[in-house]
Amino acid sequence: MPKATFHFPPDFLWGVATASHQVEGHNTNNQWWAWEQQEGRIKQGGVSGMACNWWENAELDFDRAEAMGLNTLRLSIEWSRVEVAPSRIDTAALDRYREMVRGLHARGIEPMVTLHHFSDPLWFAEQGGWLNENAVAYFTRYVEQVVKALGDEVTLWCTINEPNVYTVLGYVLGDFPPGIQDQRQAYRVLRAMLKAHAAAYRRIHQLQVKARVGLAHNYRFFDPYNPRSPRDRWVARIQDLGYNQSVLNPLLKGTWSLPVGVGFAWGLRRKLDWLGLNYYTRDLIQFDKEARAKFFGRATHAPDAELLDGNYGELYPEGMFRMLKKFAYMGLPLYITENGIPDADDDQRPRALLLHLHQMWRALQENMPVKGYYHWTLTDNFEWAEGWTLRFGLIELDPETQERTLRPSANLYSAIARGNAITPEILNAYVPVLRSELFPE
Ligand code: IFM
Fold first, then answer.
1. CA 162 to ligand 1 center in whole angstroms
2. Dihedral, CA atoms, 410, 413, 418, 422, nearest 10 degrees?
């Protein structure tokens, strides 16, 4: 058996990522809870309900993360719990978050704290949400409260999770609240969220000298279905502009780009201490003159692609390396703030996990500044419009009984995190079919 081992840097962070509304349970004061109560919004009529019961007892899952040998965990703060009505702060909620982040430290786990992950307080949504002219000020006011309360326990802050997903699903496709289909509103929302990121960045740094502030971007590849077709290349580029560059150009280059806007994005440049990348899959884009609303691009996948549960997309681990290579030049630390697949029976996940981690290792060999990896996710959780139909957990959860069962992938991830390496023994034990691919004789 070949002896090669893929080592990771000594201070590498191995973690899992979560989000408040998906795990806490009974987040009744946000727009998602209200949305779930409307018929037909969530697949199979799912509701978040008690989710993973973290508000009561996140510590049980923290124990599991510790037992797996993880040294970081990404969790989010629920704005609607902290600021229950405009300017009305619930200090007991902040105390509970304090208890959680302390609990993580006590287990040797560094918290990464996200300040906004899809859920808005009801009062904020009722005032027009991110379309309200005061949205940035409201968000900054809330951020200030959180940083003051948790600042002695947390230095790794993620302002906003996936502003592109929030706007595309909420304001273009209408699958997320508020269920609007209006591109102009979507661009306004996106601009407000990016300005809110910049404002939060400034405020956090004013309050905390040691803060490291970033944002998590959902990066999706849009490759031309036929690379030799100029029309496929053109429509693929347009999808990329709308989905990726609309967020990345303002943050990385300080300019808005079409279709979101034109001109300088004043105040947005150099507002990242690190960049978070949430990577899942890619689309192949084909020119389709009927697909007017989608800028003439139809998303499809390669004929031989390995598809994921619930039409989630194709398994495309090479994208991990390609993506890191795209961003390595900036000199910013990079975190994989999310990566995983929906796989209820865990028959694809062990292979998928190893292949993605191997691609990340390749990037590290080329000195790309990857500092940590957060697997999405620890325990099956409420998957937004997909309800409970997509299972992303390393740990299986029965949301009714709260019974948890470790999937084989949990042991695999644990072995890698503990050893800080992918070894032939790990490969042999968990995914022997990959041996010749990763360790060619
Ligand atoms: O569950 C989501 C998460 O909230 C945001 N990124 C993608 C995940 C899987 O779909």
1. 9
2. 150
